[in-house]
Amino acid sequence: MEVFQLLSRGGARFDKQRFKSDVQLFTKTDLKTAKEKTEPVTQDSELPAELDFFKYAQGAPGKRKAANAETTSSSVLQPSGVRRKRRKVGQEDDHSDDDGYTGAEDDTARPKHRVKSKGSDIPLPVEAFDTLLDRYKMAPRLLSNLRDNGYTHPTGVQAHGIPILLQRRDLAAISPTGTGKTLSYLLPIMSSLGAPISSQGDESGSGVRAVVLAPTRELAHQIHNECLKLAVGRKWRVVLFSKATASTLRDKGVRDKVDIIISTPLRLVASIQEGNLDLNNVRHLILDEADRLLDTEFVAQVQEVVAACTYPDVQKAVFSATLPAGVEKLAMGMLRNPIRIVVGLKDTPLPLISQSLTYVADDASKLPSLLTYLAQPYNPPLLIFTSTQPRATSLAEELTLNGIPNVDCLHAGMTQKERDDAVSRMRCGQSWVMVSTEVMARGMDFKGVREVINYDFPTSVQSYIHRIGRTGRAGREGKAVTYFTDADAPYLKSIANVLLQSGSTVPDWMLKLPKPSRLKKKEMGKVKRAETVNAARKIGRSDAIKKRDMIAGSKRRKAKDHVARDETESGSG
DNA sequence: AAAAAAC
């Protein structure tokens, strides 16, 4: 019954305490440059242990009921012939002492992940942050700032990645969502830069010394906040690049005295082209969400930034939770003698996120399904993803019209102020239901989010992994529900495989769905037009069979759903 | 495979 208390959550009540860390995070966001600060940014002691990010980071025991939660949630789709398979973890040079993801049966250990490293002369990982003091002569101030923010034990990507970057090596790091990638590059950058440029003479040259690129403004903003926390106590000039800051820098003529710029690609490109920004002294260039930054619409901009960083020894590093083979090749081509690290299994979400796929027939059935879902107790704030901006707007309106409280919307079609306000409401817990587009899918760290709903089916495996990765962060558990319609059938199989890989249960028929035609093309090499058409017909034919199965599955699901609902009601009442 | 995001 303890399980039900956890799952039924007693309605959509808002607990201020839960958002304490986010509230504090948000209150720091107005700073543009780090100022002298003596007090710690957070006071962990006031946070309930369960909600304290940093406790998880250091590996304190957490309440994890993942096994139970998963069972309950996946009973939504639990037909006969369920297949459950856990992929074997490969050989690796891991220093850690357990076997990959910890199962839910172990309640005391923090989730650790195997780390695979590839490359020449790979530096030893650090088992503690303090090791950085002796081995790399890291400034004590940086380490005390870490401590003050509650970081006491490095995660896998931090333990392996930080030494690599400190030894001035190029790096490609793949680590699951919510495992602390931001700190993995910020800490070594700030350590390598040494003193802030404002306190240095001319020996370090002038101009920007480090650049961090991110695909959305919201993410750049968040990285900036993280950076400010590490910069406390020293006069670092850390600039979140925007139209406003770009002109400020230009007007005040202080652009030569900047340590770190955090920006979206196009903003930087614009400034470079206007002749207002010189990147020839950049020593460190980081691509966060690298696969996103290197996909077709962004890659030209990113390459322009890379080309503008003409310092001979510029260190480059790419980070993401996902890195498809083609993009990885592109990334590796940019790097010099790189080391590649993979934490956990590539393209696999965290097992602490309990995932389920819910059949909703067609688009018209989605809203009623969601309203039914929201009529039951849920766990605010809830993050809902739609495929387009208009759909996000109208869904938010519909939900409000249907009496759902505190519904918010966030997409890139809104004004900057609207976007900023929406993020603030999310950070301080005023949003109970946030409807958003892909803009929120990557990197955003809302610590309170326990549930993600894919209202519209994600358009790629990567999108799926990043979207559901908005929950289950820093060792917490999370829940992800994905609606699928008949129209989504062609892409269902690839997502079903993701569930399978991360230890969720998946009905057999989903895995037996035909491969998307493009994969077939690849297998066969050059395919003639006629064959492609035939393949398409084949898929079309099996669609009918799939549909039959889906409907059958949906009936089973509904039956189970009723049972689950009854149990929940009696459990929480 | 396709929309979103970037200014």
Protein described:
42% of the residues lie in helices and 12% in strands. The chain is of the alpha/beta class. It has an 8-stranded mixed β-sheet with strand order 2-9-3-8-7-4-6-5, with helices on both faces. It has a 6-stranded parallel β-sheet with strand order 10-15-14-11-13-12, sandwiched between helices. Strand 12 (407-410), helix 17 and strand 13 (433-436) form a beta-alpha-beta unit. Helix 7 runs parallel beside helix 8, helix 8 (181-193) crosses helix 9 (217-231) and helix 11 packs across helix 13 (299-308). The termini are close together. The model is unreliable at 1-110 and 519-573 (pLDDT under 50). The structure holds one DNA strand of 7 nucleotides. It holds the Pfam family DEAD. Residues 561-573 have a biased composition (Basic and acidic residues).
Query: Judging by the overall fold, what is the CATH architecture of one domain?
Result: 3-Layer(aba) Sandwich
Q: CATH class of one domain, anyone?
A: Alpha Beta
**Shape by Cα distribution:** globular
Q: Cα-atom Rg, whole angstroms?
A: 24 Å
Topology, number of strands? 16
Strand share of the residues? Answer: 5-15%
Structural class: alpha/beta
Helix count, DSSP H or I runs of 4 or more residues: 22
For the largest beta-sheet, the strand count, sense and barrel status come to: 8 strands, mixed
Helix content: 40-55%
By CATH's scheme, which homologous superfamily of one domain applies? P-loop containing nucleotide triphosphate hydrolases
CATH topology of one domain: Rossmann fold
> For the terminal residues, how far apart are their CA atoms?
11 Å
Q: How much is the average pLDDT? A: 75
| Low-pLDDT ranges | 1-110, 519-573
Sequence of strands across the biggest β-sheet: 2-9-3-8-7-4-6-5
Enzyme class: hydrolase
Main location: nucleus
Protein name: RNA helicase
Family: Belongs to the DEAD box helicase family. DDX52/ROK1 subfamily.
